[in-house]
Amino acid sequence: MPLQKLSAFIDAICRFVICNDSSLRGQTVIFNPDFFVEKLRHEKPEVFTELVVSNITRLIDLPGAELAQLMGEEEPKLPGGIGTASGFFRSLMSLKRKDKGVVFGSPLTEEGIAQVSQLIEYLHKHLRMEGLFRVPGNSLRQQILKDALNSGVDIDLESGEFHPNDVASLLKMFLGELPEPLLTHKHFQAHLKIAGLMQFDDQGNKTSAPDKERQIEALQLLFLILPPPNRSLLKLLLDLLYQTAKKQDKNKMSAHNLALMFAPHVLWPRNVTANDLQENITKLNDGVAFMIKHSQKLFKAPAYVRECARLHYLGSRVHASKDDLDLLTSAGSKELQPLKSQKRSRLDPSHREETQQRTEEALKELFHHIHSMPDSAKKKKLIRQFHKHPGTLTPGPDAPTPPVQRRTRSRSFSGLIKRRMLGNPLILERKSRDSTPESERASKENLHLLQRPPESPASHGTRAKLKLSEGRKEDSRKHLQALAPSTKEPSV
Predict the structure, then answer these.
(1) Beta bridge partners of 185
(2) CA distance 410 to 396
């Protein structure tokens, strides 16, 4: 079926890329690079048109009237003073043909493109024919083929009844009988400006060398706002002419020769002659030749338009032009700022309290677990770890403070454990500085009591309190005795 063939052509436009998402790495994903562009075009045409036109005006100078014509707000002003209103009778006849289902002379539709695609598919197989599109075909066979296309039936072009020149001439006839050129009247002034884009020298003076990069970019943007049927048929046509020009050593048809054959049907306004175009005729023909040579690049949306459309749907900020895309490189580092802010938000007071509570519960479970273990070397080692790293009993999100800084006494369970097991930090420091064999022996005895499993909770608590109080009194008494001789005056 013709619609099936058309869908095959459309599917061929989509490309295969590898998704760089780390979660999908190693998997091949079928993806249309212009997916978000097409989605934006269909769902939000006003936003899409504003995005594209703003970038077109960045590349070419369009005064108010010409910009209004491009936007469809004013009637296009064509060369020779001819406007689209003069073609009223022609448009009325085309509407009557459309109602009858006639393909030739009617506005473009998907059904009409499906019929014409049969001609394009056939010509792809006969690109080596010398004088293709230049040598006319048989008028009688062309009329038979035209009636068959208007009736909407499938045609067997491979039967040998028709010649490639018949099919090529009929394709040009179809384009010539369209109510307006394939590139539309609204875009005529824009194409003239694109054909005049030239490079500049180091002094800023315009040269005679075409600025191909800007021309390609402008055509990519301009093709994006073509009506969908026009864009679909233009893609099929330019691809056919590109393949034909590649075989110019056989068919003698270069891109320039093909542009002379198709510019009047694709770009020239209707009801104008070469005299009306005057000096613009060379620009228009060269413009069509340029489209043929670079047709493989013209139907891809510019990278910044793709990025703008993607960001529009992914909830990020939308960039208005190519200049804004340059900020993406620096914005990559700024994307890490939300992550940093999330980390900082975790340190709010409510989160600190929750973290402290969980830490105390974990330490409580760890403490009971260690003391419930039977006497062993492993148990002794774990208890030594408590002595070596007292700060781990009460961790917090703030930075560690100097060990000599006086802190308020914690009433939490973990603080009680630390005070009972390790004592006051200042007293411990003095013990380590003024330690004696007897005090070391007392500390070992206290450690032995802690390592021994308790007989009962009440007796163990009472015994631990008595032992700690006696140890502290003994230590303070010895400390005072050690300091007493230093206070006496030296004898003569």
Answers:
(1) none
(2) 13
CB 135 within 8 A of CB 97: no
425-433 vs 457-487: helix crossing angle, rounded to 10: 50
Count of CB atoms situated within 10 Å of the CB of 453: 10
Average pLDDT over every residue of 419-435: 53
In this structure, the chain runs to a length of 492
How far, in Å, are 25, 131, 235, 236 from residue 120 at the CA level? 39, 16, 11, 8
State pLDDT tens for residues 217-234: 999 999 999 999 999 999
The pLDDT tens digits for 234-275 are 999 999 999 999 999 999 999 999 999 999 999 999 888 778
The structure tokens listed for 72 are: 């469809």
Q: For residue 210, what are the β-bridge partners?
A: 198
DSSP state of 256: H
Q: What is the dihedral angle through the alpha carbons of 389, 394, 395, 400, rounded to the nearest 10 degrees?
A: -70
- d(CA 258, CA 267) in angstroms, rounded, equals 13
- State how far the Cα of 33 lies from the Cα of 37, in Å rounded to an integer: 8
The band of 418, judged by pLDDT with boundaries at 50, 70 and 90, is low
Res 423: pLDDT? 55
Distance CA 250, CA 253 (A): 8
Displacement of CA 68 from its chain's centroid (Å): 32
pLDDT digits (tens, 9 = 90+) for 142-194: 999 999 999 887 788 998 899 999 999 999 999 999 999 999 999 999 999 99
Q: What is the greatest pairwise CA distance in the chain?
A: 146
Please state, in angstroms and rounded to a whole number, the distance separating the CA atoms of residues 446 and 120: 99
What is the Cα gyration radius of the chain? 43
* C-alpha distances in Å from residue 398, one per residue of 52, 387, 391, 403, 406: 52, 22, 12, 14, 16
Distance between CA atoms of residues 360 and 265, nearest Å = 84
Q: With left for phi above 0 and alpha for psi between -120 and 50, is residue 278 left, alpha or beta?
A: left
Paired with 17 in beta bridges are 29
In whole angstroms, what separates CA 165 from the centre of its chain? 46
Question: Residue 284: how many CB atoms within 10 A of its CB?
Answer: 21
Residues 108 and 237: their CA atoms lie apart, in Å, by 14
- Rounded to whole angstroms, the Cα distance separating 201 from 172 reads 41
198: alpha, beta or left, given left = phi > 0 and alpha = psi -120 to 50? beta
**Cα–Cα distance, 417 to 423 (Å, whole number):** 9
Taking the C-alpha atoms of residue 193 and residue 62, their distance in angstroms, rounded to an integer, is: 8
Do 259 and 285 form a contact (C-beta atoms < 8 A)? yes
The 3-state DSSP class for residue 208 equals strand
Task: With H, G, I as helix, E, B as strand and everything else as coil, classify residue 482.
Answer: helix
| pTM: predicted TM-score of the whole model, two decimal places | 0.59
Give percent of the chain with pLDDT exceeding 70: 60
Block residue for tokens 């939000």? 44
Half-sphere exposure (CA, 13 Å, Cβ side) for 151?
A: 9
